[in-house]
UniProtKB/TrEMBL annotation:
Gene this chain is encoded by: prsD_2
Transmembrane helix as UniProt keyword: yes
Identification of the protein by name: Type I secretion system ATP-binding protein PrsD
Annotated transmembrane regions: 28-55, 67-87, 140-159, 165-185
InterPro entries named in the record: AAA+_ATPase, ABC1_TM_dom, ABC1_TM_sf, ABC_transporter-like_ATP-bd, ABC_transporter-like_CS, ATPase_T1SS_PrtD-like, P-loop_NTPase, Type_1_exporter
SUPFAM superfamilies, per the entry: ABC transporter transmembrane region, P-loop containing nucleoside triphosphate hydrolases
Amino acid sequence: MGFNTVNQLHVNESKRHELIDARKSGTALIWAVFLFSIFVNLLMLTGPLFMLQVYDRVLGSRSEETLAALFVLVGFLYFFMGLLDYARGRIMARYGANFQTSLDRTIFEARLSRIPDGSQSKGAELKDLESIQTLTASPVFLALFDLPWSPLFLFAIFVLHPMLGWTACAGGAVLVVIAVLNQFLTVRKTQRANVTSFQAQSLAAQAEHARDVVQSQGMRHAVSERWHKKQSAALDDRINAADWVGSFTTSSKAFRLFLQSAILAVGAYFVLQGELTGGAMIAASILLGRALAPIEQCLGQWQVFQRSRQAWSSLDALLSATPKAKPLTALPRPKAQILVRKLVVVPPGGSAPTLKNLNFGVNPGHALGVIGRSGSGKSSLAKALLGIWPSASGEIRLGGAELDQYDPDKLGQYIGYLPQSVALLPGTVAENIARMSANVDGDAVVAAAKRANAHDMILTLPNGYDTQLDGDQSHLSGGQKQRVALARALFGDPVILILDEPNSALDAEGSQALNQTIREFKTEGKAVIIMSHRPQAIAECDTLLVLDQGTVVSFGPRDEVMKAQLKNADQIKRNLNAQAVAK
Protein backbone atom coordinates (compact mmCIF):
# COMPACT_ATOMS: atom_id res chain seq x y z
CA MET A 1 0.00 0.00 0.00
CA GLY A 2 1.46 3.39 -1.01
CA PHE A 3 2.17 6.24 1.37
CA ASN A 4 -0.62 8.38 -0.14
CA THR A 5 -3.14 5.59 0.35
CA VAL A 6 -2.17 5.26 4.01
CA ASN A 7 -2.49 9.01 4.53
CA GLN A 8 -5.86 9.05 2.76
CA LEU A 9 -7.16 6.24 4.95
CA HIS A 10 -6.06 8.16 8.01
CA VAL A 11 -7.91 11.24 6.80
CA ASN A 12 -11.08 9.29 6.05
CA GLU A 13 -11.03 7.65 9.46
CA SER A 14 -10.67 11.07 11.07
CA LYS A 15 -13.54 12.77 9.24
CA ARG A 16 -14.79 15.72 11.22
CA HIS A 17 -18.34 16.84 11.90
CA GLU A 18 -17.99 20.48 12.96
CA LEU A 19 -20.15 21.69 10.07
CA ILE A 20 -23.05 19.46 11.03
CA ASP A 21 -22.58 20.25 14.72
CA ALA A 22 -22.63 24.00 14.00
CA ARG A 23 -25.78 23.59 11.95
CA LYS A 24 -27.47 21.57 14.69
CA SER A 25 -26.48 24.07 17.38
CA GLY A 26 -29.03 26.49 15.94
CA THR A 27 -31.91 24.00 15.85
CA ALA A 28 -33.91 26.02 18.39
CA LEU A 29 -33.63 29.13 16.22
CA ILE A 30 -34.69 27.18 13.13
CA TRP A 31 -37.76 25.89 14.94
CA ALA A 32 -38.60 29.44 16.04
CA VAL A 33 -38.37 30.62 12.42
CA PHE A 34 -40.52 27.67 11.34
CA LEU A 35 -43.14 28.58 13.95
CA PHE A 36 -43.16 32.22 12.89
CA SER A 37 -43.41 31.13 9.25
CA ILE A 38 -46.63 29.27 10.04
CA PHE A 39 -48.29 32.45 11.25
CA VAL A 40 -46.74 34.61 8.52
CA ASN A 41 -48.07 32.38 5.77
CA LEU A 42 -51.48 32.03 7.39
CA LEU A 43 -51.65 35.80 7.63
CA MET A 44 -50.82 35.93 3.92
CA LEU A 45 -54.44 34.87 3.42
CA THR A 46 -55.52 38.25 4.80
CA GLY A 47 -55.40 39.94 1.41
CA PRO A 48 -57.46 37.37 -0.52
CA LEU A 49 -60.04 37.12 2.29
CA PHE A 50 -60.30 40.91 2.47
CA MET A 51 -60.78 41.02 -1.29
CA LEU A 52 -63.56 38.44 -1.09
CA GLN A 53 -65.35 40.35 1.67
CA VAL A 54 -65.06 43.70 -0.10
CA TYR A 55 -66.32 42.45 -3.47
CA ASP A 56 -68.96 40.04 -2.19
CA ARG A 57 -70.21 41.71 1.01
CA VAL A 58 -69.24 45.37 1.27
CA LEU A 59 -70.05 46.32 -2.31
CA GLY A 60 -73.24 44.25 -2.20
CA SER A 61 -74.48 45.66 1.11
CA ARG A 62 -72.98 49.13 0.58
CA SER A 63 -72.12 49.14 4.29
CA GLU A 64 -69.46 51.68 5.25
CA GLU A 65 -69.30 50.35 8.80
CA THR A 66 -68.42 46.88 7.53
CA LEU A 67 -65.73 48.33 5.27
CA ALA A 68 -64.22 50.34 8.13
CA ALA A 69 -64.21 47.35 10.47
CA LEU A 70 -62.62 45.11 7.85
CA PHE A 71 -60.01 47.76 7.05
CA VAL A 72 -59.00 48.16 10.71
CA LEU A 73 -58.80 44.39 11.12
CA VAL A 74 -56.69 44.03 7.98
CA GLY A 75 -54.36 46.79 9.14
CA PHE A 76 -53.82 45.05 12.48
CA LEU A 77 -53.22 41.66 10.84
CA TYR A 78 -50.73 43.09 8.35
CA PHE A 79 -48.92 44.93 11.15
CA PHE A 80 -48.69 41.70 13.15
CA MET A 81 -47.50 39.81 10.06
CA GLY A 82 -44.81 42.45 9.46
CA LEU A 83 -43.55 42.06 13.02
CA LEU A 84 -43.36 38.29 12.68
CA ASP A 85 -41.64 38.53 9.30
CA TYR A 86 -39.11 41.01 10.71
CA ALA A 87 -38.54 38.78 13.74
CA ARG A 88 -37.83 35.66 11.70
CA GLY A 89 -35.43 37.65 9.50
CA ARG A 90 -33.52 38.84 12.56
CA ILE A 91 -33.48 35.32 13.99
CA MET A 92 -32.00 33.93 10.77
CA ALA A 93 -29.39 36.71 10.74
CA ARG A 94 -28.32 35.64 14.23
CA TYR A 95 -28.41 31.99 13.24
CA GLY A 96 -25.99 32.77 10.41
CA ALA A 97 -23.78 34.84 12.71
CA ASN A 98 -23.70 32.06 15.32
CA PHE A 99 -22.89 29.53 12.60
CA GLN A 100 -19.97 31.63 11.40
CA THR A 101 -18.73 32.44 14.90
CA SER A 102 -18.76 28.79 15.94
CA LEU A 103 -16.65 27.81 12.93
CA ASP A 104 -14.43 30.74 12.00
CA ARG A 105 -11.60 29.89 14.39
CA THR A 106 -11.89 26.19 13.54
CA ILE A 107 -11.66 26.95 9.81
CA PHE A 108 -8.77 29.37 10.31
CA GLU A 109 -6.79 26.87 12.38
CA ALA A 110 -7.61 24.07 9.92
CA ARG A 111 -6.16 26.19 7.11
CA LEU A 112 -2.98 26.67 9.13
CA SER A 113 -2.80 22.97 10.05
CA ARG A 114 -3.55 21.72 6.55
CA ILE A 115 -0.56 20.24 4.77
CA PRO A 116 -0.45 21.97 1.37
CA ASP A 117 -0.36 19.65 -1.63
CA GLY A 118 -0.92 22.23 -4.35
CA SER A 119 -4.56 21.26 -4.95
CA GLN A 120 -6.29 23.51 -2.43
CA SER A 121 -7.62 26.96 -3.11
CA LYS A 122 -5.54 29.77 -1.68
CA GLY A 123 -7.40 30.83 1.42
CA ALA A 124 -10.91 30.82 -0.02
CA GLU A 125 -12.41 28.86 2.87
CA LEU A 126 -13.04 31.91 5.05
CA LYS A 127 -14.95 33.46 2.14
CA ASP A 128 -16.82 30.17 1.80
CA LEU A 129 -17.89 30.40 5.43
CA GLU A 130 -19.01 33.98 4.85
CA SER A 131 -21.00 32.85 1.78
CA ILE A 132 -22.98 30.39 3.90
CA GLN A 133 -23.58 33.04 6.56
CA THR A 134 -24.77 35.49 3.89
CA LEU A 135 -27.22 32.92 2.53
CA THR A 136 -28.77 32.20 5.93
CA ALA A 137 -29.27 35.92 6.57
CA SER A 138 -30.77 36.64 3.14
CA PRO A 139 -34.49 36.79 2.23
CA VAL A 140 -34.01 33.96 -0.25
CA PHE A 141 -33.31 31.57 2.64
CA LEU A 142 -36.62 32.53 4.23
CA ALA A 143 -38.26 31.61 0.94
CA LEU A 144 -37.36 27.99 1.77
CA PHE A 145 -39.62 28.27 4.83
CA ASP A 146 -42.40 29.72 2.67
CA LEU A 147 -42.05 27.11 -0.05
CA PRO A 148 -43.90 24.31 1.84
CA TRP A 149 -46.91 26.65 2.14
CA SER A 150 -47.37 26.96 -1.61
CA PRO A 151 -49.60 23.82 -1.64
CA LEU A 152 -51.85 25.51 0.95
CA PHE A 153 -52.40 28.49 -1.33
CA LEU A 154 -52.98 26.16 -4.28
CA PHE A 155 -55.57 24.27 -2.21
CA ALA A 156 -57.29 27.58 -1.43
CA ILE A 157 -57.47 28.26 -5.17
CA PHE A 158 -59.04 24.81 -5.68
CA VAL A 159 -61.65 25.73 -3.06
CA LEU A 160 -62.58 28.79 -5.10
CA HIS A 161 -62.90 26.74 -8.31
CA PRO A 162 -61.27 23.45 -9.45
CA MET A 163 -60.31 24.82 -12.88
CA LEU A 164 -58.51 27.73 -11.28
CA GLY A 165 -56.63 25.23 -9.12
CA TRP A 166 -55.59 23.09 -12.09
CA THR A 167 -54.45 26.18 -13.96
CA ALA A 168 -52.30 27.22 -11.01
CA CYS A 169 -50.87 23.69 -10.62
CA ALA A 170 -49.97 23.51 -14.30
CA GLY A 171 -48.22 26.86 -14.08
CA GLY A 172 -46.39 25.85 -10.92
CA ALA A 173 -45.23 22.63 -12.58
CA VAL A 174 -43.77 24.62 -15.48
CA LEU A 175 -41.87 26.85 -13.04
CA VAL A 176 -40.50 23.79 -11.22
CA VAL A 177 -39.30 22.34 -14.54
CA ILE A 178 -37.58 25.64 -15.30
CA ALA A 179 -35.91 25.54 -11.87
CA VAL A 180 -34.68 21.96 -12.37
CA LEU A 181 -33.32 22.77 -15.83
CA ASN A 182 -31.63 25.83 -14.39
CA GLN A 183 -29.87 23.66 -11.81
CA PHE A 184 -28.63 20.97 -14.18
CA LEU A 185 -27.69 23.22 -17.10
CA THR A 186 -25.97 26.07 -15.25
CA VAL A 187 -24.12 24.49 -12.33
CA ARG A 188 -21.12 23.34 -14.40
CA LYS A 189 -20.96 26.61 -16.29
CA THR A 190 -20.98 28.54 -13.02
CA GLN A 191 -18.26 26.33 -11.55
CA ARG A 192 -16.09 26.78 -14.63
CA ALA A 193 -16.54 30.55 -14.44
CA ASN A 194 -15.46 30.50 -10.79
CA VAL A 195 -12.36 28.41 -11.59
CA THR A 196 -11.18 30.61 -14.47
CA SER A 197 -11.82 33.75 -12.43
CA PHE A 198 -9.78 32.32 -9.55
CA GLN A 199 -6.89 31.51 -11.93
CA ALA A 200 -6.85 35.09 -13.20
CA GLN A 201 -6.89 36.46 -9.65
CA SER A 202 -4.07 34.11 -8.60
CA LEU A 203 -1.87 35.20 -11.50
CA ALA A 204 -2.49 38.86 -10.64
CA ALA A 205 -1.57 38.25 -6.99
CA GLN A 206 1.59 36.35 -7.92
CA ALA A 207 2.65 39.05 -10.38
CA GLU A 208 2.12 41.73 -7.73
CA HIS A 209 4.14 39.73 -5.22
CA ALA A 210 7.01 39.49 -7.74
CA ARG A 211 6.63 43.07 -8.99
CA ASP A 212 10.37 43.79 -8.65
CA VAL A 213 11.30 40.89 -10.91
CA VAL A 214 8.49 41.65 -13.35
CA GLN A 215 9.53 45.27 -13.78
CA SER A 216 13.30 44.82 -13.70
CA GLN A 217 13.30 41.95 -16.21
CA GLY A 218 11.03 43.64 -18.73
CA MET A 219 8.24 41.13 -18.10
CA ARG A 220 5.44 43.60 -17.45
CA HIS A 221 3.89 43.47 -20.92
CA ALA A 222 4.23 39.67 -21.21
CA VAL A 223 2.73 39.05 -17.77
CA SER A 224 -0.01 41.60 -18.43
CA GLU A 225 -0.84 39.90 -21.72
CA ARG A 226 -1.03 36.49 -20.04
CA TRP A 227 -3.24 37.86 -17.26
CA HIS A 228 -5.46 39.59 -19.83
CA LYS A 229 -6.01 36.29 -21.64
CA LYS A 230 -6.99 34.54 -18.42
CA GLN A 231 -9.19 37.45 -17.40
CA SER A 232 -10.88 37.48 -20.81
CA ALA A 233 -11.49 33.74 -20.57
CA ALA A 234 -12.95 34.21 -17.09
CA LEU A 235 -15.15 37.04 -18.34
CA ASP A 236 -16.39 34.91 -21.25
CA ASP A 237 -17.22 32.07 -18.86
CA ARG A 238 -19.05 34.43 -16.50
CA ILE A 239 -21.04 35.94 -19.36
CA ASN A 240 -21.88 32.47 -20.68
CA ALA A 241 -23.05 31.34 -17.24
CA ALA A 242 -24.96 34.59 -16.70
CA ASP A 243 -26.65 34.22 -20.10
CA TRP A 244 -27.95 30.77 -19.20
CA VAL A 245 -29.06 31.82 -15.73
CA GLY A 246 -30.62 34.97 -17.16
CA SER A 247 -32.54 33.02 -19.77
CA PHE A 248 -34.13 30.83 -17.11
CA THR A 249 -34.77 33.78 -14.79
CA THR A 250 -36.47 35.89 -17.45
CA SER A 251 -38.41 32.88 -18.72
CA SER A 252 -39.65 32.26 -15.21
CA LYS A 253 -40.62 35.89 -14.70
CA ALA A 254 -42.38 36.21 -18.07
CA PHE A 255 -44.26 32.95 -17.57
CA ARG A 256 -45.39 33.97 -14.08
CA LEU A 257 -46.78 37.25 -15.42
CA PHE A 258 -48.52 35.32 -18.18
CA LEU A 259 -49.88 32.87 -15.61
CA GLN A 260 -51.21 35.77 -13.53
CA SER A 261 -53.14 37.00 -16.55
CA ALA A 262 -54.20 33.47 -17.49
CA ILE A 263 -55.82 32.80 -14.13
CA LEU A 264 -57.65 36.13 -14.36
CA ALA A 265 -58.88 35.14 -17.81
CA VAL A 266 -60.05 31.73 -16.58
CA GLY A 267 -61.66 33.36 -13.55
CA ALA A 268 -63.39 35.96 -15.71
CA TYR A 269 -64.78 33.21 -17.92
CA PHE A 270 -66.38 31.49 -14.94
CA VAL A 271 -67.68 34.83 -13.64
CA LEU A 272 -69.41 35.26 -16.99
CA GLN A 273 -70.80 31.75 -16.61
CA GLY A 274 -72.13 32.61 -13.16
CA GLU A 275 -69.92 30.01 -11.44
CA LEU A 276 -67.62 32.47 -9.68
CA THR A 277 -67.83 35.89 -8.07
CA GLY A 278 -65.61 38.84 -8.94
CA GLY A 279 -64.06 38.78 -5.48
CA ALA A 280 -63.11 35.12 -5.86
CA MET A 281 -61.51 35.87 -9.23
CA ILE A 282 -59.28 38.60 -7.73
CA ALA A 283 -58.56 36.46 -4.65
CA ALA A 284 -57.41 33.59 -6.87
CA SER A 285 -54.96 35.91 -8.62
CA ILE A 286 -53.53 37.06 -5.27
CA LEU A 287 -53.29 33.48 -3.97
CA LEU A 288 -51.48 32.43 -7.13
CA GLY A 289 -48.92 35.18 -6.60
CA ARG A 290 -48.34 34.01 -3.03
CA ALA A 291 -48.05 30.36 -4.09
CA LEU A 292 -45.51 31.08 -6.82
CA ALA A 293 -43.50 33.83 -5.08
CA PRO A 294 -41.17 31.44 -3.15
CA ILE A 295 -40.56 29.37 -6.29
CA GLU A 296 -39.67 32.42 -8.34
CA GLN A 297 -37.51 33.85 -5.56
CA CYS A 298 -35.53 30.62 -5.23
CA LEU A 299 -35.14 30.41 -8.99
CA GLY A 300 -33.98 34.00 -9.26
CA GLN A 301 -31.35 33.52 -6.54
CA TRP A 302 -30.27 30.03 -7.53
CA GLN A 303 -26.65 31.12 -7.93
CA VAL A 304 -26.59 32.00 -4.24
CA PHE A 305 -27.64 28.44 -3.39
CA GLN A 306 -25.02 27.04 -5.77
CA ARG A 307 -22.23 29.13 -4.25
CA SER A 308 -23.27 28.11 -0.75
CA ARG A 309 -23.41 24.46 -1.74
CA GLN A 310 -19.91 24.68 -3.22
CA ALA A 311 -18.75 26.53 -0.11
CA TRP A 312 -20.13 23.77 2.12
CA SER A 313 -18.31 21.11 0.07
CA SER A 314 -15.08 23.12 0.24
CA LEU A 315 -15.29 23.52 4.02
CA ASP A 316 -16.16 19.86 4.46
CA ALA A 317 -13.13 18.88 2.35
CA LEU A 318 -10.89 21.18 4.40
CA LEU A 319 -12.04 19.77 7.73
CA SER A 320 -11.84 16.19 6.45
CA ALA A 321 -8.27 16.79 5.29
CA THR A 322 -7.21 18.08 8.72
CA PRO A 323 -8.16 15.52 11.38
CA LYS A 324 -9.26 17.04 14.65
CA ALA A 325 -6.54 17.12 17.29
CA LYS A 326 -7.11 14.71 20.16
CA PRO A 327 -6.64 15.84 23.77
CA LEU A 328 -3.07 15.06 24.84
CA THR A 329 -1.55 14.63 28.26
CA ALA A 330 0.62 17.65 29.03
CA LEU A 331 4.28 16.64 29.01
CA PRO A 332 6.97 18.39 31.04
CA ARG A 333 9.53 20.64 29.39
CA PRO A 334 11.68 18.27 27.31
CA LYS A 335 15.41 17.78 27.44
CA ALA A 336 17.31 19.35 24.54
CA GLN A 337 17.78 16.06 22.73
CA ILE A 338 16.61 15.00 19.27
CA LEU A 339 16.68 11.36 18.17
CA VAL A 340 15.76 10.30 14.63
CA ARG A 341 15.35 6.61 13.72
CA LYS A 342 14.61 5.10 10.31
CA LEU A 343 12.87 8.29 9.21
CA VAL A 344 11.07 8.27 5.86
CA VAL A 345 9.27 11.41 4.68
CA VAL A 346 7.00 11.77 1.66
CA PRO A 347 6.12 15.36 0.68
CA PRO A 348 2.39 16.18 0.74
CA GLY A 349 0.83 15.36 -2.61
CA GLY A 350 3.88 13.34 -3.66
CA SER A 351 4.49 9.65 -4.03
CA ALA A 352 8.28 9.33 -3.77
CA PRO A 353 10.02 9.89 -0.42
CA THR A 354 12.40 12.84 -0.16
CA LEU A 355 14.03 11.44 2.99
CA LYS A 356 14.92 7.75 3.24
CA ASN A 357 15.94 5.81 6.34
CA LEU A 358 17.57 8.66 8.27
CA ASN A 359 19.26 7.86 11.59
CA PHE A 360 21.00 10.47 13.74
CA GLY A 361 20.79 12.29 17.04
CA VAL A 362 21.62 15.64 18.62
CA ASN A 363 22.52 15.92 22.30
CA PRO A 364 22.20 18.91 24.66
CA GLY A 365 24.91 21.52 24.19
CA HIS A 366 25.68 20.38 20.64
CA ALA A 367 25.04 21.78 17.18
CA LEU A 368 24.40 19.64 14.10
CA GLY A 369 25.00 20.96 10.61
CA VAL A 370 22.98 19.42 7.78
CA ILE A 371 24.65 20.03 4.43
CA GLY A 372 24.05 18.90 0.89
CA ARG A 373 23.29 20.13 -2.57
CA SER A 374 20.04 21.89 -3.45
CA GLY A 375 17.23 19.34 -3.45
CA SER A 376 19.09 16.93 -1.19
CA GLY A 377 16.34 17.08 1.45
CA LYS A 378 17.56 19.69 3.95
CA SER A 379 14.34 21.72 4.05
CA SER A 380 12.28 18.50 4.08
CA LEU A 381 14.18 17.40 7.17
CA ALA A 382 13.55 20.76 8.85
CA LYS A 383 9.81 20.47 8.23
CA ALA A 384 9.79 16.91 9.54
CA LEU A 385 11.68 17.90 12.71
CA LEU A 386 9.16 20.69 13.29
CA GLY A 387 6.20 18.35 12.85
CA ILE A 388 4.97 20.30 9.81
CA TRP A 389 5.34 17.28 7.54
CA PRO A 390 4.31 13.91 9.00
CA SER A 391 6.67 10.98 8.72
CA ALA A 392 5.63 8.09 6.48
CA SER A 393 7.58 5.74 8.74
CA GLY A 394 10.19 5.91 11.45
CA GLU A 395 10.18 8.24 14.42
CA ILE A 396 11.40 11.60 15.67
CA ARG A 397 11.77 11.96 19.42
CA LEU A 398 12.23 15.16 21.42
CA GLY A 399 13.30 14.56 24.99
CA GLY A 400 12.33 10.90 24.65
CA ALA A 401 8.76 11.50 23.41
CA GLU A 402 7.61 11.38 19.80
CA LEU A 403 6.56 14.70 18.31
CA ASP A 404 2.89 13.73 17.98
CA GLN A 405 2.74 13.26 21.77
CA TYR A 406 3.12 17.02 22.20
CA ASP A 407 0.37 19.56 21.77
CA PRO A 408 1.31 21.49 18.58
CA ASP A 409 1.24 24.87 20.34
CA LYS A 410 3.35 23.55 23.21
CA LEU A 411 5.77 21.95 20.76
CA GLY A 412 6.19 25.32 19.08
CA GLN A 413 7.29 26.79 22.42
CA TYR A 414 10.03 24.20 22.76
CA ILE A 415 11.41 24.53 19.21
CA GLY A 416 12.65 27.80 17.74
CA TYR A 417 12.59 27.94 13.95
CA LEU A 418 14.18 30.30 11.46
CA PRO A 419 12.87 29.43 7.97
CA GLN A 420 14.76 29.89 4.75
CA SER A 421 12.10 32.32 3.50
CA VAL A 422 11.38 34.69 6.37
CA ALA A 423 7.72 35.65 6.84
CA LEU A 424 6.70 38.36 9.29
CA LEU A 425 3.05 39.06 10.02
CA PRO A 426 1.25 42.43 10.05
CA GLY A 427 1.77 43.96 13.48
CA THR A 428 4.55 45.56 15.48
CA VAL A 429 8.10 44.25 15.65
CA ALA A 430 7.52 43.36 19.31
CA GLU A 431 4.35 41.42 18.47
CA ASN A 432 6.20 39.46 15.79
CA ILE A 433 9.02 38.57 18.16
CA ALA A 434 6.43 37.56 20.79
CA ARG A 435 4.84 35.23 18.20
CA MET A 436 1.69 37.41 17.99
CA SER A 437 0.83 36.81 21.65
CA ALA A 438 -2.14 38.82 22.92
CA ASN A 439 -0.16 39.92 26.00
CA VAL A 440 3.31 40.98 24.91
CA ASP A 441 5.97 40.58 27.61
CA GLY A 442 8.29 43.49 26.83
CA ASP A 443 11.17 42.15 28.93
CA ALA A 444 11.02 38.75 27.20
CA VAL A 445 10.86 40.41 23.78
CA VAL A 446 13.93 42.57 24.45
CA ALA A 447 15.78 39.59 25.91
CA ALA A 448 15.10 37.51 22.78
CA ALA A 449 16.21 40.39 20.54
CA LYS A 450 19.43 40.79 22.51
CA ARG A 451 20.15 37.06 22.25
CA ALA A 452 19.68 37.36 18.49
CA ASN A 453 21.94 40.46 18.42
CA ALA A 454 19.02 42.34 16.90
CA HIS A 455 18.34 44.81 19.73
CA ASP A 456 20.50 47.66 18.42
CA MET A 457 19.18 47.20 14.89
CA ILE A 458 15.57 47.34 16.10
CA LEU A 459 16.24 50.57 17.99
CA THR A 460 17.24 52.23 14.70
CA LEU A 461 13.77 51.58 13.22
CA PRO A 462 11.31 54.53 13.13
CA ASN A 463 9.44 53.45 16.27
CA GLY A 464 11.79 50.80 17.59
CA TYR A 465 9.96 47.74 18.86
CA ASP A 466 6.63 49.47 18.16
CA THR A 467 7.35 49.87 14.44
CA GLN A 468 4.37 48.64 12.46
CA LEU A 469 5.13 46.04 9.79
CA ASP A 470 2.89 45.99 6.74
CA GLY A 471 2.15 43.04 4.48
CA ASP A 472 5.47 42.90 2.61
CA GLN A 473 7.74 44.68 5.18
CA SER A 474 9.22 46.66 2.27
CA HIS A 475 11.01 49.05 4.66
CA LEU A 476 13.07 46.20 6.15
CA SER A 477 16.09 44.70 4.43
CA GLY A 478 16.48 40.96 4.07
CA GLY A 479 19.07 40.90 6.85
CA GLN A 480 16.85 42.92 9.20
CA LYS A 481 13.91 40.60 8.63
CA GLN A 482 16.16 37.61 9.27
CA ARG A 483 17.36 39.05 12.58
CA VAL A 484 13.81 39.78 13.73
CA ALA A 485 12.83 36.22 12.75
CA LEU A 486 15.81 34.85 14.71
CA ALA A 487 14.65 36.81 17.77
CA ARG A 488 11.20 35.29 17.28
CA ALA A 489 12.77 31.81 17.16
CA LEU A 490 14.60 32.50 20.44
CA PHE A 491 11.53 33.94 22.20
CA GLY A 492 10.18 31.85 25.05
CA ASP A 493 13.47 30.07 25.80
CA PRO A 494 13.16 27.04 23.43
CA VAL A 495 15.30 23.95 23.96
CA ILE A 496 15.92 23.26 20.26
CA LEU A 497 16.83 25.78 17.58
CA ILE A 498 16.34 24.82 13.92
CA LEU A 499 17.88 27.19 11.39
CA ASP A 500 17.30 26.77 7.65
CA GLU A 501 19.90 28.74 5.66
CA PRO A 502 20.18 31.22 8.56
CA ASN A 503 22.78 33.53 7.00
CA SER A 504 21.39 33.67 3.46
CA ALA A 505 20.62 37.40 3.84
CA LEU A 506 23.28 38.32 6.41
CA ASP A 507 26.53 40.17 5.81
CA ALA A 508 29.83 39.22 7.47
CA GLU A 509 28.96 41.10 10.66
CA GLY A 510 25.53 39.46 10.78
CA SER A 511 27.06 35.99 10.29
CA GLN A 512 29.46 36.59 13.18
CA ALA A 513 26.58 37.70 15.39
CA LEU A 514 24.65 34.57 14.40
CA ASN A 515 27.59 32.34 15.34
CA GLN A 516 27.84 34.10 18.69
CA THR A 517 24.13 33.41 19.30
CA ILE A 518 24.65 29.72 18.48
CA ARG A 519 27.62 29.52 20.88
CA GLU A 520 25.60 31.04 23.71
CA PHE A 521 22.68 28.74 22.98
CA LYS A 522 24.93 25.68 23.18
CA THR A 523 26.51 26.95 26.40
CA GLU A 524 23.04 26.95 27.99
CA GLY A 525 22.73 23.22 27.27
CA LYS A 526 20.41 23.67 24.29
CA ALA A 527 20.69 21.97 20.88
CA VAL A 528 20.98 23.55 17.45
CA ILE A 529 20.31 22.09 14.00
CA ILE A 530 21.48 24.14 11.01
CA MET A 531 20.54 23.44 7.39
CA SER A 532 23.00 25.16 5.08
CA HIS A 533 25.51 24.87 2.26
CA ARG A 534 27.56 27.89 3.38
CA PRO A 535 30.78 27.21 5.35
CA GLN A 536 30.17 30.24 7.64
CA ALA A 537 26.89 28.75 8.88
CA ILE A 538 28.46 25.52 10.16
CA ALA A 539 31.42 27.11 11.93
CA GLU A 540 29.85 26.39 15.34
CA CYS A 541 28.63 22.88 14.48
CA ASP A 542 30.03 19.91 16.38
CA THR A 543 28.74 17.26 13.98
CA LEU A 544 27.77 17.20 10.33
CA LEU A 545 25.11 15.25 8.47
CA VAL A 546 25.62 15.08 4.71
CA LEU A 547 22.50 14.43 2.62
CA ASP A 548 22.31 13.44 -1.02
CA GLN A 549 18.95 12.70 -2.67
CA GLY A 550 17.34 12.17 0.72
CA THR A 551 19.84 9.65 2.10
CA VAL A 552 22.67 10.02 4.61
CA VAL A 553 26.06 10.08 2.88
CA SER A 554 28.09 10.84 5.97
CA PHE A 555 27.49 11.58 9.64
CA GLY A 556 30.04 12.31 12.34
CA PRO A 557 32.31 14.95 13.86
CA ARG A 558 32.52 18.08 11.74
CA ASP A 559 36.23 18.05 10.93
CA GLU A 560 36.27 14.34 10.04
CA VAL A 561 33.26 14.69 7.76
CA MET A 562 34.73 17.78 6.09
CA LYS A 563 38.04 16.00 5.46
CA ALA A 564 36.22 13.02 3.99
CA GLN A 565 34.15 15.28 1.78
CA LEU A 566 37.24 17.14 0.56
CA LYS A 567 39.02 13.84 -0.07
CA ASN A 568 36.07 12.57 -2.08
CA ALA A 569 35.93 15.84 -4.00
CA ASP A 570 39.66 15.62 -4.81
CA GLN A 571 39.25 12.01 -5.92
CA ILE A 572 36.34 12.93 -8.18
CA LYS A 573 38.38 15.81 -9.62
CA ARG A 574 41.36 13.51 -10.32
CA ASN A 575 39.08 10.98 -12.02
CA LEU A 576 37.58 13.67 -14.22
CA ASN A 577 41.04 14.96 -15.17
CA ALA A 578 42.20 11.43 -15.97
CA GLN A 579 39.17 10.90 -18.19
CA ALA A 580 39.86 14.18 -19.97
CA VAL A 581 43.52 13.24 -20.60
CA ALA A 582 42.49 9.80 -21.89
CA LYS A 583 40.13 11.42 -24.38
